[in-house]
Structures are given as C-alpha cells and as structure tokens.
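Sharing a chain and its predicted structure for anyone who wants a worked example. Both blocks are below, sequence first, tokens second.
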Amino acid sequence: MVSEAQVRQLPVAVLAPNVKKIARGQRVRLSGGGFGPRKSVNLYVASDPIYLGSGVADENGVVTVEGVIPDGLDAGEHSLVLIDPETGVGFRQDVSLDAADSSSDLPTTGADSTPMMALGALFVLAGGGLALVAKRRRFI
C-alpha cells in the first residue's frame, strides 16, 4: 500500500489521458512510462490511497492500468497515482471530484417537463381569457 506521504513526494506528471476531473463510478485508464521493463505497477486514487488496479510495464517501461473510481470517495482534491510498489518509482496526476458530478443513490428518470408545463399554463390562461370574452358577449 502507498502512503499519502509517498504520494506527495512523487513528481507531478501529465499521465495519458490528461484527466482533470473524476466522478464516482467512472472508469479511468492511465498510461505512463519510466518504469522498469516488466515491472508491476499499481494504480491508486489518493488522498486516502485506494487501490484501483495494476498492470505490467512493457519492455520499454510503459504501462497502462485501468480502474473504477469508488462510489465512497469524498468530493475534493485527489491524485491518480501510478507507482511501482517495489522501487517506489511513480508519478501522480492531481484531479478533483466535484460533489455535483458525483453519482446519486437514485437513478435519474423521466424527462424535463418545464416546456410542457409552460404550454399547459398558456392553455389555461387562453381558456380563461376565452371564458371572460364569452361571458361579456352574453351580457351585451
């Protein structure tokens, strides 16, 4: 397991792709180089380091690792970390998780009903206006 102190000492790098924001439940796939050939590399999301996955570097020291951002991750600033657990060689990419971007316990259903409500209100007003006109015509 990697510690928060280790994460802060890692050089900041732009890992591929250059992710700036993350969301709960999002699948992330990061690539980075500079590792030893055929070395195991772990992916973490850190402030409280949470293991997301691992991969093995190719003969050029390049690795791609996938993982899923956990549902219980708090909103705020975090780092995505690729690190060789044996040597401590690694890189971090700072990211943020906005509360508004987070998944909810309940699914989003239905459609935006605002246009239909506005149309309904227009019909009610038009009907009320016609009723007033009809009432006036009766008394004339």
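Comments welcome. The beta strands are 21-22, 27-32, 40-46, 50-56, 63-68, 76-83, 90-97.
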